[in-house]
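Model it.
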Amino acid sequence: MSGKEKPAFTGVGIDSPDFEKATKEFVKGERTQKVFRAIKNGYRTRDRATICIDDIELLRIKPRIKWVIKQLKQLNFNSKSEILDCGSWTGAFTNEIYQAGYKNITCLDLCKCVCEMGSENFPHLRYINDDIETFIPNTKYDAVLLCEIVEHLVTPFETIERIKKCFLKDGGIILTTIPDEKYVKDDFEDGRYEHIHPISKDDLKKLTTDSIEEVEFTKKYKWYCAILKK
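Modeled.
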């Protein structure tokens, strides 16, 4: 597969034999706590050598930022709206939302180094170092962003339902962007073992009555973009 067909990722993947072994077992159907712990530990303990500030101009990032901002505008969100960006990485994506006027936004990421690096580069953003699949928020949000995160989770559908129940205010929404299942499978076969849970358009249809947008970012791959309501 050529680099022209498949957009390159910035940064370095998780270089851990335990993580690689666990993700391969997960993809084959293994669902033990040992596998879950090894996957989580891979994310939790990655160091600065494998972390970067995303280039928001990349083809795999910029269209998703535009889509999120468009939805927030159309749904009449404002600078006081409480927004949580889950799996925010260092916050470069989140910062674009902040700069668009949505100042009351918080980052949530499992990796401590990621949150520290984000705080250094985007000190105006708030960071929570915790696991989205077990995190219990002390406040509720108008919107939760799940942008290129669902395919990383060991329990994606259960987590989405828990977010609806525990994270969102009445009338709150989830904005999610997910790479198509072909991209996730090809990515895994190419040796990037972080994408473990392909999500299809039919999977998303079970979670929302709204239309699901498709954003093409190469001739072979696209993103599914959806609004999930409480």
